[in-house]
Design a protein that fits this description.
single chain; 284 residues; mainly beta; 2 helices; 3% helix
Length: 284
């Protein structure tokens, strides 16, 4: 995972292929089945090798193409990547072509640097809505964030000890493995690295991907290959219910979809879906 997925990748279908047995009832009561042709966690898009096709005579552009097996409901995935001509950054055009009628959760899943010094990374998300904490313990021994809770702001996320955490200032002082989901209708988040003097802006299509799943991994995983040393922050623009996969995200009654927030993308046979995102860097 560290070798192949430590950047900006596409999860399709996003999340787990099956319902997690320990999910509390509001999350699995009406859950359906997965996509039998795709048994990968985070889907074929995050697990299979892509072909890289350079753009002739233009080293600032390239395409990445993945052709799933014939039985898969998606016939083609393509990412067209281009460096921006006027500022540090790049844009990605994602194209998804359906082979059959299908519905699934989708995520654009870039991972960014998480500093060592507590509170030296600031998150700015305009008009972020009320959020959810993960409905299961992520790593119980390093889980200060309360499980299956609601919060009104990232500035006051409930803790397991009854207090609150400001998760706009990262990393937290303790070891932590956490997942949060918030509506983010403006389609933009800024990561401000104050000590280093730069900011990163991730912009995406919020009409298609109306939520952000924020994955905070601050030395919270002891198993190999993480070994208690891995740090990252994943900023996942999603149409999905966390990473609970097609069985939960395709169900219109899951707790997030029940509040009118899309958690799956439907496609018709032969339809091509096109969406863009950008990641840019600027000085503070």
């Amino acid at each position: 995972m560290l070798r192949d997925l430590c950047g900006d990748f596409i999860c399709l279908p996003y999340g787990a292929p099956d319902v997690m047995a320990a999910l509390p009832d509001p999350w699995q009561h009406g859950a359906g089945s997965g996509i039998p042709e795709d048994r990968w966690f985070h889907g074929i898009g995050a697990n299979a090798p892509w072909e890289i096709i350079p753009e002739p005579n233009d080293p600032t552009r390239a395409a990445m193409v993945l052709l799933p097996p014939d039985a898969h409901p998606v016939s083609k995935l393509e990412r067209r990547v281009a460096l921006l001509p006027d500022r540090p950054g790049y844009e990605v055009e994602l194209r998804i072509t359906a082979r059959h009628d299908v519905q699934f959760p989708v995520s654009m899943h870039p991972c960014f640097h998480l500093p060592k010094e507590p509170g030296t990374l600031r998150l700015e998300i305009a008009n972020a809505g009320r959020g959810w904490t993960y409905p299961l313990p992520v790593v119980p021994e390093h889980a200060p964030v309360a499980v299956n809770a609601r919060f009104d702001s990232l500035n006051a996320v409930p803790r397991t000890d009854g207090g609150g955490m400001d998760l706009t200032m990262l990393p937290p002082p303790e070891r932590c493995e956490a997942l949060l989901q918030i509506p983010a209708p403006d389609g933009e988040i800024r990561l401000l690295y104050d000590q280093a003097g730069y900011g990163v802006r991730f912009a995406y299509d919020a009409e298609l991907l109306p939520s952000l799943v924020i994955w905070i991994s601050n030395r919270g995983r002891d198993e190999a290959p993480f070994d208690g040393n891995f740090r990252t922050i994943g900023i996942e623009a999603v149409a999905g219910a966390f990473d609970l996969g097609p069985p939960v995200s395709n169900w219109s009654g899951n707790p997030i979809a029940a509040e009118g927030i899309s958690t799956a993308v439907p496609l018709r046979a032969g339809q091509e879906l096109i969406t863009q995102s950008t990641i840019t860097i600027d000085a503070l």
